Structure formats: structure tokens, C-alpha cells
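Team,

Forwarding the record for the chain on the shared tracking sheet. I've put the sequence and predicted structure together so nobody has to dig through attachments.
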Amino acid sequence: MTLSNIRLDVVTLLCDTDFKRRPDTNRWSHLDGRPFTQAEQTLALSSTREEFEIAAAQIQREGDYRREYQEAVHAFLKLLLPYFAQVPDGSTVSDVIPRMTDEERTAFERLCDIVAPDGYLYAPGDN
């Protein structure tokens, strides 16, 4: 099957599939728990091996990204929290960066690229 024969709607649906059959509908469901409609179940069951392989590769990439992100968040906090203990309450990340070594700033910048690729760090409650 050529790439042009791949049905993107099928791949997208497969990427959003919980493959455990629901006992109430005897169908698969979306990752958010919504049961598949009969049309969605039929579409998913019509998928080709190639479409399943593409969906599996995408699911793997998304899982890898989530793991990398969570590891980066943990490392980011591990890097910053000791510095926040040294500055007054209400201080920001901008206040602790000057206290870092060059090596720590390099690590900080690398982690920022993962945790805040748009350049903005948001805390719970930020609007």
C-alpha cells in the first residue's frame, strides 16, 4: 500500500482507541472513555496492517514524548528548587538564574526547550 492509500481518518481514530471491548456496547472506545459509535467501530475494523503500523508508531512517539516531558519536569524542579530556598518568597525563576553556574544554566535552557518550548513557564493559577 502506498502512503497515498493510507486513510488518515482511520489512523487518527486508531491513535485515539482503547482496544478493550466495553461490556456495555461490545465495542472499543476513545481514550477519553466515550464508546465508539457503530460507524467508528466499523471504520476501525476496516483498518489495514499499514494503517495499524502507522498508528502504532505514532502512539509510540507520543508515549516517548510524554516520558521525556515528565523526566524534564522532574529534572527542572530538581534544578530550581534548591535555588528557590535561597531567595525571598515571591521570587521568580528570573531571580534564581543568576545564581546558577554556567553548566546549570545550560541544563536549564535545555530543559526549558522541553518543558516550555514557547518560552513561557506557567504555574497553576496563571491565566
